[in-house]
Amino acid sequence: MRSLVTGGAGFIGSHLVDALLDSGDDVVVVDHLAGGHTENLAEAIERGAEVLPADVSDVVGMNDVVADVRPDVIFHLAAQIDVRRSVADPSTDAHVNVGGTAAILEAARRARVRRVLLASTAGVYGDPSELWTSEDAPVAPLSPYGASKAAAETYMNLFRRLHGISTLSLRMSNVYGPRQDPHSDSGVVAIFSAAACEHRAATIYGDGRQTRDYVFVRDAVAAFLAAARSDAEGVLNISTGTETSLLDLARTIGVRTVFAPERAGEVARSCLNPGRAATELGWRANVPLDVGLRATVASTAAA
Predict the structure, then answer these.
(1) What dihedral do alpha carbons 9, 15, 18, 23 form, nearest 10°?
(2) Catalytic residue status for 145
(3) Catalytic: which of 145, 155, 176, 214?
(4) What is the tens place of the pLDDT at every residue in 2-17?
(5) The overall pTM is greater than 0.90
């Protein structure tokens, strides 16, 4: 298979690139490289991955790239992922997440790409009224980031109906693991792991009882690989189905904590039902949280 991975230098994207190469795929990466994560692709480049510096919101550029690469599948992971930045600058968030998705889909239409997969988020549900949240739950995001991902999903469904492109959006819960940036606000496991390795306290905003559904990056990548092989369309949750509080997360990692006032727009509890992904993709999360956390802390300490 010939695969195009947008955002392939990032946390999840670089792990996906490695896995596609392991599967024998011909892999091309599109990334603006502004995050400075080129080291994530060093081994992949040695193994034959091609890296094209480009911005997914550049419509003409994406048309040219996709027409030249002619991929079988596009894995669209490039995004603005910082929730706080989305609140401060919603226009840029929408430009990248909505405009970039529309540009990729239009390029895929023109080049007759068979399938497009989108990295979406549990954030589209906002603060759901029911846990073990299914894909049928209302879409009610609490941040511009969640809203832009919900809009990107709408474009995915539109291009499927209007142009016959096979599309699937993976609503991922909180993905964690090696290579996640501890200096951003997008990954609490990375932040806590860095604090533990540096023997300093980590800050918890609120009382620490807020919960998330943490899925290891290797499992998230396996979901993308299964999605590429399937004909499933629409949206699917990618999660463990297990709820973990911040207090329990900190205890498992072994990091000291201090508390600060709760931040506006914070989701109180989040836990997604992964049953439909099991049925349609044959996928389940396999890495226990304690095992994944040990691997993440070890990777952070070695960095």
Answers:
(1) -130
(2) yes
(3) 145
(4) 999 999 999 999 999 9
(5) yes
